[in-house]
Q: What sequence folds into this?
């Protein structure tokens, strides 16, 4: 074990952003991602910097029959698993996505881009504590990680926490399993052991530490909110650049002698877009609808790529939709007036108008509101602890709610009906 820890120390010292492990003997743990929304699990504001927060109101009975007894929670202060997690966090601080991909089974492009952009603002992790519970099978382990994070040009230590599911592959190597690849049974198992008393107790302690920091220095909350927005914009710009480059490469491959310039398309009949049909022949879908930009995209004064550019909408930003046209454009409300965005860059959201209300839910803590019933879905906003909203439907682990005039989704674990 000493040899392994020595090797880990040598690895860390070769990098400019360092993880300093702090080993505790107390059998306590933490439960959710707290890292500027880098993964689906997640995002946290003071509310959390990222992810879906865990309810700390009370310990409920297990909702799963996968495990019927308390699984012991153990401190992990060395060995192969500790090395894997320490390597992972060091790579997070460096924005080293190549290393992260080597220890994850899979991660989407947007997540990797967000890791790279977030690392630009990280100074180092000052604390790393690792605790474990046995996984659903002998080759897997539920890992609870608590850390303190210091951003560049700040001296404050921001407490964070995350749940990882570490498994061993057929070659005997440890890897972190993306929650998108969990089986239903694995999700139920992890949820059950995470609601056990020892995990909830430490979760409460970490939440208290974070809330005390934000209460003492409320300007840090504004900093985190602005940082989260800035990173989202930067990721949106990079996604747009990657998509534009991919489109240009595809066009060059398809027509190498006459590649289309997407910024200055040729007239119809010369490789450009067909002219828009007359206005009176364009069916429209009208109503109180909203949409989320899937990437950073231009807003035009009319439904044409030749129209004046009014500005931009950042990836992840929600806009109010006035009309959806068959010519590929959507009319939106932009700075109090009309604007137009190519429909392909918008993800439509459901309208809450006329939806049947079956009750209310109250948030147990600050919790993210998503555009769909998934932790990877776009975030519409935050439901503050104690705030109540109308409930439209109970889904599998999610509540469908009315949120700011539209449909939103929150994790059912973190609300009370």
A:
């Amino acid at each position: 074990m000493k040899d392994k820890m020595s090797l880990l120390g040598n690895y860390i010292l070769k990098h400019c952003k360092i993880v300093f492990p702090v080993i505790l003997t107390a059998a306590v743990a933490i439960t959710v991602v707290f890292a500027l929304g880098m993964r689906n699990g997640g995002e946290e504001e003071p509310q959390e910097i990222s992810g879906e927060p865990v309810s700390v109101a009370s310990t409920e009975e297990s909702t799963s029959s996968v495990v019927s007894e308390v699984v012991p929670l153990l401190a992990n202060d060395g060995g192969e698993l500790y090395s894997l997690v320490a390597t992972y966090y060091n790579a997070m601080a460096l924005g080293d996505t190549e290393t992260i991909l080597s220890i994850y089974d899979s991660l989407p492009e947007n997540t990797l881009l967000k890791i790279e952009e977030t690392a630009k603002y990280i100074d180092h992790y000052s604390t790393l504590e690792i605790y474990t519970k046995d996984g659903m099978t002998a080759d897997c382990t539920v890992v609870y990680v608590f850390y303190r994070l210091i951003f560049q040009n700040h001296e404050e230590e921001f407490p964070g926490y995350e749940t990882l599911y570490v498994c061993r592959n057929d070659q005997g190597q440890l890897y972190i399993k993306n929650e998108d690849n969990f089986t239903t049974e694995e999700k139920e198992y992890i949820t059950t052991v995470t609601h056990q008393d020892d995990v909830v107790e430490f979760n409460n302690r970490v939440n208290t530490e974070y809330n005390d920091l934000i209460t003492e220095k409320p300007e840090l909350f504004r900093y985190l909110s602005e940082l989260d927005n800035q990173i989202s914009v930067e990721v949106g710009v990079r996604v747009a650049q990657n998509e534009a480059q991919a489109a240009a490469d595809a066009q060059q491959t398809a027509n190498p002698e006459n590649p289309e310039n997407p910024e200055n398309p040729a007239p119809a009949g010369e490789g450009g877009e067909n002219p828009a049909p007359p206005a009176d022949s364009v069916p429209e879908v009208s109503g109180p609808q909203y949409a989320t930009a899937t990437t950073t995209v231009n807003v035009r004064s009319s439904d044409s790529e030749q129209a004046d550019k009014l500005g931009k909408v950042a990836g992840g930003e929600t806009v109010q939709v006035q009309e959806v046209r068959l010519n590929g454009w959507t009319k939106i409300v932009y700075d109090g007036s009309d604007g137009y965005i190519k429909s392909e860059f918008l993800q439509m959201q459901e309208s809450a108008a006329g939806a049947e209300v079956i009750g209310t839910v109250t948030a147990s803590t600050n919790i993210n509101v998503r555009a769909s019933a998934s932790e990877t879905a776009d975030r519409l906003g935050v439901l503050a602890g104690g705030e109540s909203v109308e409930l439209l439907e109970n889904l599998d682990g999610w509540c469908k709610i009315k949120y700011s005039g539209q449909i939103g989704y929150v994790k059912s674990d973190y609300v009370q009906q």
